[in-house]
Design goal:
Blueprint: E1 2-4, E2 14-18, E3 21-31, E4 37-50, E5 56-59, H1 67-87
Antiparallel strand pairs: 1-2, 2-3, 3-4, 4-5
Amino acid sequence: MEEFVDGDKNSPEKRFSCGAVTATVWKNNGISKAGDAVDFRTVSFQRRYKDRGGEWKTSHNLRQNDLPKAALVLNKAFEFLVLKDSEE
């Protein structure tokens, strides 16, 4: 399993990848109902594959063999979020 980090503002905060299955953690900024600046995180999930023409595509659908990989990367993303919250 691979982990990626990039400090660029528009880049993901953390990415967990196992084969073609990836969970990406994004840090977002918003405004609360009280008008205060707040940070929150979201997680996106995808599977990459090549189509018949050899072009890379993205899907959110999984095959049976993708399920253990999906569980792993989503658990790693959850672990990252929980540990990050406890540090902050």
